[in-house]
Amino acid sequence: MIRVGLVIVLVAVLAALVGPALSPYNPAAQELARRLEPPTLSHPFGLDELGRDILARLLAGARISLLVGLAVVSVSSVVGMLVGSIAGYFGGRVDDVISRVVDILMAFPGILLAIALVAVLGPSLTNVVLALSVIGWVGYARLVRGQALRARELDFVHAARALGAGSPRVVLRHVLPSAFPAVVVQSTLGMAGAIIAEASLSFLGLGVQPPTPSWGTMLDAGRAHLFDAPHLTIFPGLAIALLVLGFNFLGDGLRDRVDPKLAK
Amino acid sequence: MLSYLIRRLVLTVPVLLGVATLVFALIHLVPGDPAQSMLGEAASAEEVTALRHTLGLDRPLLAQYVSFMGGAVRGDLGTSFRYGTPVAREIKSRLYRTVQLALAAMAVALVFAIPLGIVSAVLRGTFVDHAAMTLSLVGISMPNFWLGPLLAILFAVRLGWLPVAGTGTLAHLVLPAVTLGAALAAILARMTRASVLEELRELYVLAARARGLSRTRAIVRHAFRNSLIPVVTIVGLQFGAVLTGTIITETIFAWPGVGRLLIQSISFRDYPLVQGCILFISITYVLMNLVTDLTYGLVDPRIRFD
User: Fold this and answer.
1) pLDDT at residue B152 above 80?
2) Fewer CB within 10 Å, N or C, chain A?
3) How does residue A264 score in pLDDT terms, banded at 50, 70 and 90?
């Protein structure tokens, strides 16, 4: 599974990096006379409602999906790790306050909060990343808090403190690294979650705005052409499902490696 | 049980308050003036001032907060900017459709998942088991905003068996319910299989087998009921996902529920209605999680609420 996941993710990354340069078509170039044309040899995935090459747009859209995923996971994991390790390491009132905030945010259905934030801030790529990070850090914080609670009782942490290391140093050098493997697993699965959330928001018209090619926006445009051009729906959806499956396989595989007890 | 119930209820209060506070804060996150944003750039200064007054935005923040919370407790969520009617009434008039869709999706999920999970467990390691589990993996990975249009292409456009969108007959409910229920069905099937296999290792099942019961009978008569505990948990916890899933499913199939109302009110910048829908969905979500927690004990008397 982990290999299948890795292959899918690597192919997607490669496609996003070099695909647009290799594609003979500009993702924004319109050929209105040939709009909605089904797949042919010259346009393997067909043309969209404005006569743009769907494959070229999927390759350009892969950049958006991966970029959003990467940005959301980076921001969420850094904030989550910091907050979680502070809560777990210091405990007491600090932990109480942080844990209550985490509880409240976790009680909120994630995508709903993202929809709400984008609804008021306005749809844009930056706001999508912001909204998804606002809900994303909570999972990391809870994970790292648990790890930090465990780590602070370990001998090497006691030793570091006995040697005179201050709290920031203990947290950064000793507590956080012990949580890294779990965070890597969570980040891989988080990529899948962020990609699907971005696509959902774009599908609802709240994400990346046209003409920027996003897989979710492409699916949304396909809805009006279910009868006459189903290829507008089939290919972007397939791309999303495959990439999400790839990250899920990779995350599950990594989790089994990090914690063999969980392997089935 | 009673003390657990009270403690759990008390713990839910700060969460509900936090959720309501977050929803209240939303309108204040609107860049610039929310009233101006709702009316558009062409609106006159008088119109903006009047709307600010109607929305209560000209009052001190604390007074706005107190009246929002007080209203929310009484079920008064303000007035819709677009319809000019109470937000609560707009939500109430669409609630039936959302509940109908959510329940139908859960029914679809249970009807497919539980037999599939049991059959997979009974026939563990066989072709049927592998096929069922592969199918469930596909179900989990498929985003509903892709599954919905695909089902519509196949069953409405190509085969012409079902209507592509709208409401009216039971046939209109089929595609939205399957779209919304598919991911839950996939999760439940895997959960049922794992849970039944787990129970089969328990001593009471061995005892039943020793008394001469067949494996299938031991599963159906004994293991199945206990294996339902994690399944019930997941059904309850996933109700929230189903509820938020209605937002996309209702949009795909033009289903006139609360989810579609939310998306429509966002495009009309009807912030009171947006706030109302979000508050309603999130509070239902929190309360459903509470009900799920409290249901464990009914399914499994071994669980003590101390």
Assistant:
1) yes
2) C
3) very low
